[in-house]
Backbone:
């Protein structure tokens, strides 16, 4: 009678307790026994593994010379051998003109001549144009030109790399992977790194693995782009008779139920019920209103890992962001604990009688 009134301490609920009366009137969840036949239905129920889908810039462009843009700064050294030069002196055969800013209209201003349009030209094309304009007033002039890229010809690496910062784009159509390499590579502590490119009012986002898969997915970086690399923000909650009970982040783009169990450290051999692996998931009200939607806003998916179909199904069932993965406790564990407690009680009773 004393034992009947005691609650046996346990680390996880049993499958029977969690799934009590799912078909009863007023039940607040639906039960899905996951099998090969049922798997195709689930793809229509949810948001697609919690992945955010956006457009992505086309890739595969070949790097070429960068072109001048507003905000770039030009530094020129003008040589002139004439004794009566307008810009040089007898002591120095050249004159330096520094920090000539390319205006919003793409022009630069130089002494003794009107504005010269250089926007959209490569550095060599701009040098030739400036020299041609100068020779109209200084016939023997020779121009050397250096360009310091402004904001519109540079990109920002905001984080997720070894050396974040602003990087000048010395080449046009510089691939994203080249910019990442220039920044020291991806931070190795990131789980399933995600790449985000902010370009004006547009935001592009893809897994880094997608970019590395094919050159066609490696977009050209433009001046003013902001690039951020961060860990996959998705996670699931691991509970019950497993080696880990915590919030676990996705380490790959697709995490199956079987992989989730591996990330949990596997189920506890002495406590877990391999017939009672559960995934608890929430759906929106709008999803339940669709003809092919889930039967309830709360659905419990059940897996039997003692059968081949259950193992294959668990390996093909994709975990969603914020799912709860629960390894239930085997019924025999509670029985063993009750018997152990009962044995301990009898042992205590015998000790008392001996005294």
Residues:
């Amino acid at each position: 009678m004393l034992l009947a009134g005691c609650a046996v301490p346990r680390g996880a609920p049993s499958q029977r307790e969690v799934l009590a009366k799912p078909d009863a009137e007023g039940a607040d969840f639906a039960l899905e026994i996951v099998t090969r036949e049922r798997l195709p239905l689930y793809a229509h129920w949810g948001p697609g593994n919690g992945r955010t889908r956006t457009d992505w810039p086309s890739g595969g462009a070949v790097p070429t010379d960068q072109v001048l843009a507003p905000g770039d700064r030009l530094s020129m050294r003008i040589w002139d051998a004439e004794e009566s030069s307008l810009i040089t002196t007898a002591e120095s055969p050249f004159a330096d003109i520094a920090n000539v800013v390319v205006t919003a209209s793409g022009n630069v201003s130089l002494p003794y001549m009107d504005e010269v349009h250089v926007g959209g030209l490569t550095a060599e094309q701009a040098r030739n144009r400036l020299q041609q304009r100068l020779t109209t007033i200084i016939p023997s002039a020779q121009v050397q030109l250096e360009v310091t890229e402004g904001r519109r010809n540079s990109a920002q690496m905001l984080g997720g790399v070894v050396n974040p910062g602003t990087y000048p784009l010395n080449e046009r159509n510089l691939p994203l992977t080249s910019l990442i390499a220039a920044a020291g590579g991806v931070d190795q502590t990131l789980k399933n790194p995600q790449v985000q490119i902010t370009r004006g009012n547009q935001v592009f986002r893809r897994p880094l693995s997608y970019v590395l898969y094919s050159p066609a997915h490696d977009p050209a970086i433009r001046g003013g782009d902001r690039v951020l690399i961060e860990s996959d923000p998705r996670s699931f909650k691991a509970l019950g008779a497993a080696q880990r009970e915590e919030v676990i982040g996705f380490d790959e783009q697709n995490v199956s139920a079987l992989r989730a169990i591996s990330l949990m450290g596997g189920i506890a051999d002495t406590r877990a019920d391999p017939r009672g692996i559960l995934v608890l998931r929430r759906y929106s009200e709008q999803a339940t209103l669709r003809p092919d939607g889930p039967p309830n806003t709360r659905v419990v998916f059940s897996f039997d890992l003692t059968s081949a179909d259950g193992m294959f199904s668990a390996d093909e069932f994709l975990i969603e962001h914020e799912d709860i993965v629960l390894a239930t406790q085997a019924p025999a564990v509670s029985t063993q604990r009750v018997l152990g407690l009962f044995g301990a009680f009898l042992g205590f009773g015998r000790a008392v009688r001996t005294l």
Observations:
- The domain at 152-230 is CATH 3.10.560.10 (Outer membrane lipoprotein wza fold like).
- The radius of gyration is 34 Å.
